[in-house]
Specification:
Layout lengths: L3 E10 L16 E2 L2 E2 H11 L2 E8 L3 H11 L9 E5 L6 H7 L1 H4 L4 E6 L7 H13 L4 E7 L8 E4 L5 E5 L6 H4 L3 E10 H8 L15 H8 L4 E5 L12 H21 L3 E2 L6 E2 L4 E2 L4 E2 L4 E3 L3 E2 L4 E2 L4 E3 L2 E2 L4 E2 L4 E3 L2 E2 L4 E2 L4 E2 L4 E2 L4 E2 L4 E3 L2 E2 L4 E2 L4 E3 L1 E3 L4 E2 L4 E3 L9 E3 L4 E2 L4 E3 L2 E3 L4 E2 L4 E2 L8 E2 L18
Parallel strand pairs: 1-4, 1-6, 4-5, 7-11, 12-15, 13-16, 14-17, 15-18, 16-19, 17-20, 18-21, 19-22, 20-23, 21-24, 22-25, 23-26, 24-27, 25-28, 26-29, 27-30, 28-31, 30-33, 32-35, 33-36, 34-37, 35-38, 36-39, 37-40, 39-41
Antiparallel strand pairs: 2-3, 6-10, 7-10, 8-9
Helix pairs in contact: 7-8
The structure holds uridine-diphosphate-N-acetylglucosamine and calcium ion.
Length: 467
């Protein structure tokens, strides 16, 4: 998008968010894997403004800290200027707190910090309308099925903008208006600054309403336009946990629809939870109950059974994940098979065609091409070659209470059931380990290692048959 040198975007996120009934500041509540504020910052950055300001107040330290430490994870490279609002006396006071920033720009876009479903495209169109008509202000107005709680857009007889009346101050007639203020505006900066000086406190909480500036700007004989959009969902403001869940569902639906458009098969689209940035190849089949999050990339033709969890991972083509598989920050190459109930912890790599089965846990390990860890194992800090077969219940003892140590299993090693590898330890290629062994020393190539006590049989020492 072409850089908008005259535009500053100001995001209002200082409010108390009382209706969330939560100690967590409202901007940090999560919608589809990232905080509400991250959705807004992303949309703001996509417009290429000259500056982005974020007004913080309630829970400011937590908000600033979270935003600063996650900006790059959210893909935000534009600098964000934090503005402190100390009095928390309404949305207009929030803008006033940012005067030193907005004074430097000709045009100011103001966005409420609680509308995570906003579309960059709509904001861009609003900006264009504002510039083309030399407006004093443009506000996004949408018609919603249930306008309660929102500010209503009151129009004059000729249909032009008259004012915004807040829900708390509206009479019965005004409450019937279904066209609401979305909380997204574009202002001529000078006129906005002028209007801010003329406000008086309103409503039961004696707040300074940003919404009152629009009628004041109109009185200055500058055009004030309502920009309409059919898609009313984008205006959903999150004030309560119910609205948070509504936003989550709408965004998940949008993601599911996009993925199906791209050729992904979702058996029951409403019952999968896929984050917006996840990429999935064609004809990958996803069953209900899966949660696929973060920056995960999944190839084509995969078969993913129910209740799998995949976070920040890369899955190749033709992979099968059976029921209940859990994968975190790992890489699974093509044609691998996992599960049911396999667990890949961070930094695990499964090479082509590898298998990790029932109740096996892999941590920070490489499982070589075609190798198998099929039943009840723990493999940690291990480098495994190709064609290795790990028997049921084999365990790497990688931790001595202080440090982690490495296990190396070279190509074509065969590990019997219930073996312990006391790391650091290396098993050379084509070696075989007898079942029940505890391996503490290097095993040479092509040899058989057995490290267990021999069986002793004592006659007549068993259970007495006739006691
Ligand atoms: C606001 C609008 C309403 C609109 C609705 C859309 C006003 C007066 N009303 O109502 O017309 O329909 O959004 O969702 O603006 N904030 C601050 N500092 C404050 C108070 C609020 O930064 O002192 C921020 C909040 O963090 C929030 C935004 O301003 O992001 C809006 O505040 P909120 O209390 O949610 O306003 P609504 O009652 O939803
Ligand atoms: Ca709100």
């Amino acid at each position: 998008m072409v850089a908008k040198k005259n535009l500053c975007i100001l995001i209002l996120a200082a409010g108390k968010g009382t209706r969330m009934k939560s100690p967590l500041p409202k901007p940090l509540h999560i919608v589809c894997g990232i905080p509400i504020i991250a959705h807004i910052l992303k949309a703001a950055q996509a417009l290429s403004p000259a500056a982005i300001g974020l007004v913080v107040g309630h829970g400011a330290d937590t908000v600033i800290e979270t935003v600063k430490s996650n900006l790059s994870a959210w893909g935000i490279s534009a600098p964000v200027v934090f503005v402190h609002q100390t009095d928390l006396s309404g949305s207009a006071s929030a803008v006033k707190a940012a005067l030193p920033l907005i004074e430097k720009f000709e045009t100011v876009m103001v966005l409420n910090g609680d509308t995570p479903l906003l579309h960059t495209k709509t904001l861009d169109q609003m900006f264009d309308v504002h510039e083309a008509n030399k407006c004093g202000a443009v506000v996004l107005g949408v018609t919603v099925p249930d306008p309660s709680g929102y500010g209503r857009i009151v129009r004059a007889e000729d249909g032009s903008f008259e004012n915004i009346t807040e829900d708390a101050d509206a009479d019965e007639e005004t409450k019937k208006i279904a066209e609401i203020n979305s909380g997204m505006y574009v202002f001529n900066s000078k006129l906005l600054q002028n209007a801010l000086t003329q406000l008086t406190p309103q409503g039961p909480k004696r707040e300074f309403y940003l919404t009152d500036t629009l009628a004041l700007i109109k009185q200055m004989n500058a055009p004030v336009l309502v920009f309409g959009s059919e898609d009313y969902e984008q205006a959903l403001g999150v004030n309560s946990k119910a609205q948070l869940a509504e936003a989550e569902q709408i965004l998940r639906d949008r993601v599911a629809l996009r993925l199906m458009d791209e050729g992904v098969t979702l058996v029951r689209p409403k019952e999968v939870f896929i984050d917006p940035e996840v990429k999935i190849g064609v004809d990958t089949f996803i069953c209900p109950g899966c949660y696929i999050s973060g920056k995960t990339v999944i190839g084509k033709n995969c078969y993913i059974e129910g209740n799998c969890y995949i976070k920040d991972s890369v899955i190749g083509d033709n992979v099968t994940l059976k029921m209940g598989t859990y994968i975190e920050e790992s890489e699974v190459e093509e044609t691998c098979q996992l599960g049911p109930y396999a667990h890949l912890r961070p930094k695990s790599v499964l090479k082509k065609g590898a298998k990790v089965g029932n109740f096996s846990e892999i941590k920070k390990s490489v499982i070589g091409e075609g190798s198998k860890v099929n039943h009840l194992s723990y493999i940690g800090d291990t480098v495994m070659g190709a064609g290795v077969n790990v028997g049921a219940g084999a365990i790497t003892c990688n931790y001595d209470g202080k440090n982690k140590h490495q296990t190396v299993l070279e190509d074509h090693v065969f590990v019997g059931s219930n073996v312990n590898f006391v790391a650091p330890v290396t098993v050379r290629e084509y070696a075989k380990i007898g079942a029940g062994s505890t391996i503490t020393k290097e095993v040479p190539a092509e040899s058989l290692a057995i490290a267990r006590t021999r069986q002793v049989v004592l006659e007549n020492k068993g259970v007495k048959k006739h006691d």
